[in-house]
Write a structure and sequence with these properties.
123 residues, alpha+beta, 3 helices, 30% helix, 20% strand, globular
Length: 123
């Protein structure tokens, strides 16, 4: 895929052009299961408005950033992983492993996750 294809991937999912396993569809936030899960629970929490990365989102709309975290917490409860623990992760820019430049929050859990020694989480 080209950079523009990757950039528009989430917008196409949000528009319903590309199928996805949706776990939350709110007014401003969509959450979908990752197609290449890194844990038993791996959900991507995506704002419906495109911001390039977490820093850009935080500067432009801190309330939406907080909503992503809140939605992730709600999903963790529904998935039964809140009590045992879960990880929330933003990859910000290429060196951190970000490959789709539409900010998205990874919700990971369902097993002991250990440290982040395996390299960057792609996405």
């Amino acid at each position: 895929m080209t950079d523009s294809d990757l950039d528009s991937l989430f917008l196409r999912i949000i528009a319903g052009e590309i199928p996805a396993d949706v776990v939350h569809d709110g007014e401003r936030v969509l959450a979908i299961r990752d197609i290449n899960p890194q844990a038993p629970t791996h959900v991507l929490v995506v704002p419906k408005t495109r911001y390039r990365n977490a820093a850009e989102l935080a500067a432009a709309d801190p309330g939406l950033l907080a909503e992503l975290v809140s939605v992730a917490g709600d999903i963790a409860e529904r998935e039964g992983i809140a009590e045992s623990g879960y990880r929330l992760l933003f990859n910000t820019n290429a060196d951190a492993g970000q490959t789709i430049f539409h900010v998205h929050l990874h919700l990971l859990g369902g097993e002991p996750l250990g440290g982040l020694t395996g390299g960057p989480l792609k996405g």
